[in-house]
Amino acid sequence: MQANKLTITEARALLDSGQLTAVQLTQDCLAAIEDQNDRLNACLEINSKQALAEAVAADRRLSEGERGGVLGIPYLAKDNILAKGFRATAASRMLADYQAPYDATVVSRLNAAGAILLGKTNLDEFAHGASTETSCYGVTKNPWNPEHVPGGSSGGSAAAVAANLALFALGTDTGGSVRHPASFCGVVGLKPTYGLCSRWGLIAMTSSTDVPGILAKTAADASLVLSAMAGADELDSTTLPRELEAYQGEMNEIKIKGLKIGIVEEFMTDAVAEPVKAGIRQTIELLEKAGATVSAAKLPYAGYGVSVYYVITPSEISSNLARFDGLRFGYRAEGNADLAADYRINRGQGFGDEVKRRIMLGTYALSAGYHDQYYLKAQQVRTLIARDFAKAFSSFDLLLCPSTPGTAFRIGEQIGDPLKMYLEDIFLTPASLAGLPAVSIPSGLADGLPTALQLIGPKLSEALLLAVGQELMDGLVAGRLDKE
Length: 484
Prior knowledge:
It contains 16 helices and eleven strands. The protein is an alpha/beta fold. It has a domain at 3-254: Amidase signature (AS) enzymes (Alpha-Beta Complex). It has an eleven-stranded mixed beta sheet, with helices on both faces.
């Protein structure tokens, strides 16, 4: 048995019954990384010695009678999430030698629950991208077809889960960076409600939309991870005053029958590839057979989501990355003549092209004479987008739409066209701007590449999202197997 191919739920039963040890499970994951990572470039740093020590500790806890959750489950974390004992590079030359001095809250909670951190995964530099092509450590390959991108910016985490290098992985989702690669790699990608999971220990991108997210093999697996890492944190004032919840227990009580599901009309455009639409149609059939009511929902301002996001996000990036000047933080070139040269050369050499592009866009949007015209107007439209969702959820329990317009594109195909890259997030940014939970669920295959759908819910509806997502996954997989 290759234990690394198990879901968390399957591994949980074997670990709790004594048929599998955490050490065996960890060794299988490490062997898979050793075998596949040179081809995929999903992982940037692995600490086998530390992981095996944590596995021994997990087996000790199991032998003492502790059960459940993520105890003994190996995972990986995106390299913009701090974990003591590892570098935190954000896939940038600017932070190439930065050693994390402490654990992010989500990491410390998972570790306390007995999860086993194997290492760190690749990403678009500072999480700026939708393909994991902007990493200074090279492109990550899609496990379904290595000529294609894995999506981004959490592409390393999504590829690692799809290739069974770990049973789950952490990512970050600012405007789709968990859901997008989940869609391209055929795994589950959960973006929790803003404030449900602590941002403490995340390298900031857009502070008003950043959330730690989960890449997993099933929605049920994601619920186990969320149960371990969610909840209020005194180190992050934006977290919500909520205690830890057993999301899988809540999921078991939820039924699709009687739910009202809205299909977002504005997102079902000609830009959506036919295989993606086919997955949506099959999903609607499954929902209706299960007793749900499915009808059209309107989000009139959602189409402005990408435009709003790419004003607000560069503006916050411009502010958040100002600290990386090579003097107090970040890469420093030697022999600079004066302070101005220090800034120019350190940042010029330390940041990649996409990071520079976003800093310049944000600085322009915030500059005197343009702040009201761009940034303030974007925030006003953001409020209208949030109101659209609030109105929709007065009539619907959940909203359904594509995750991405199509399947994974080829490496190098879009990297030279920033606008085309930004439009990859067209269906993902609205939920982020409104602070809502959303999940990307695999819906099928097209020419050997995964397709996906997205479910969006009201704030703090993660249990409902994951319960419906799991039932849909089960139905869609069964339907695909019947056809094959």
